[in-house]
Amino acid sequence: MSTLILLTFTGLGLGALYFLVASGLSLIYGLMGVLNFAHGSFLTLSAFAGFEVGRRLGAGTFTGFFGSILVGAVVGGIFAAVTELLLIRPLYKRHIEQLLVTVGLSLATVALFEGIWGPDPIFLDSSGWLRETTEILGARIPNDRFVTILAAILVLGGLVLFLNKTRYGLIIRAGVENRSMVTALGIDVRRAFTLVFTIGGIAAGIGGVLASHFFGYVSPLLGGSLLIFAFIVTVIGGMGSLAGAAIASVLVALLQQFANFYLGIGDFIVVLLLGVVLLVRPQGLLGKAAA
After folding, report:
1. Angle 39-57/222-237 helices, nearest 10 degrees?
2. 97 within 8 A of 91, measured Cβ to Cβ
3. CA-CA distance, 232 to 248, in Å (whole number)?
4. How many domains are there within the chain?
5. Signed CA dihedral, 170, 172, 178, 179: sign only
6. E strand segments, the chain
7. How far from each other are the two terminal CA atoms of the chain, in whole angstroms?
8. Is residue 40 part of a domain?
9. For the whole model, what pTM was predicted?
C-alpha cells in the first residue's frame, strides 16, 4: 500500500513538472501558432539561475528556496520575451524558419551552458525542509513533491484567470481569432503576443527551479529531457488546450512511474500511448479537430 501511495505522489509531482513546461508550450502554440523548441532553454537557464541564488542564500533555507523560484521565474520570463522580440516576431507565419531558429537556439544555449557551468550535473544541497519527508498511510513522501504539485495548480489557475478575466487575456484571444480586426481597433496585438511568450517563460522558469530540486541536480541537458515529455503531453492533451495539458501531464507521469517500477519500460509505454492517441484521436484529448 505504501509503495502505491509513494508512486502516486511521485507521479503527481512529475506530472506537475510536465505541466509547468507544457503549459507554456500549449499557450504559445494555441494562441500564436509557434512551436517553440527553445522552450527547454528557458527552463535550463532558470534552473541554473535558481541554483546560483540558492547556493548563495542557502538552498535548504526558506529564503534560498523561494528566492531561487522568484529569480528563476524572472529569468525565464525575460529570456522568453527577448527571444520573441528578436527571433520570433520577424518570422510570424513563417513556420519553417521559426522551427529552425528555435532548434538552433536550443542547441546553442546547451553549448553555452556547458561552457559556463560544465557538462556534468551539479548536485544541490540536500538539507532543509524540502528534502525531508511527510508520512501518509505509511509512505514517506518527499516534501518537494507537495510544493511542485501546489505550484502547478497555482499556475494553472493563474493562466485560466488571466485568459478569461483580464483585458490582455481577452485581447490575446481576440487577436488569435482575427488579428486584423483587433489591429484595426488600434490595439497592438504584438505587445500582447510578447506577453504570452513571457508568461510561458515564467512557467518554464518556475518548472526549471522545481525540477532541479525534484531530481536533486541541475545540468545543461535538464530542459531538453523534460521538453521531450512536455511535447508528448501537449500533443496528447490537445495542442493549445491548457486543461488537456493538465490532464495529460497527470496521465503520462503516473503511467510512466508505475510502468517503470513494475515493468521497467515507462518511457516505451508513454510513447505507445502517444501513438494510440494520434491514431484514434489526432487532435488530442481536449483539442479541436481541424476544419
Report:
1. 130
2. yes
3. 9
4. 1
5. positive
6. 122-123, 133-136, 139-142, 217-218
7. 47
8. yes
9. 0.90
